[in-house]
Prior knowledge:
The protein is α+β, with helices and mostly antiparallel strands.
Amino acid sequence: MLDTARLILRPLTLADAPFILRLVTQASWRQFIGDKGVHDVDSAERYLREGPMAMQTQHGFALQLVALRAGGTPIGVCGLLKRDSLPDPDLGFALLDEYAGHGYAFEAARAVIDDAETRLGVGRLLAIATPDNARSAALLARLGFRTEGQIDNGALTLFARP
């Protein structure tokens, strides 16, 4: 578990399925991340089991639930992913739309990066974003990521730090 001044980050569990359903079905998730086949609580549980929970078991890291320290309200996810298509772990993050623009994504991502460097010993982190996702690109720049180029025939921009 990670914590910051305003947030708590913890591993996702099957009990988080209703929240995940809400997060991944919002329009911004579908626009910038895509349809993950989550359309009800059962498919949200499958997504959790086959995605973040399996990744945590296999790699020792995964997306985590981001919740407000005061009250514990879930507001998003943030963490590391290991994709077969990328040579190094990549930073992923997404918030419910109503919590965007308040610095929460930066705060959560900074905690994940610090943990990756200190506890996990990760030297190089990647991140991906669609070319039209200006908010994510700006956040990644604030976190010290640099544009590396395009991947997937230009469908995604690849960022790296350092």
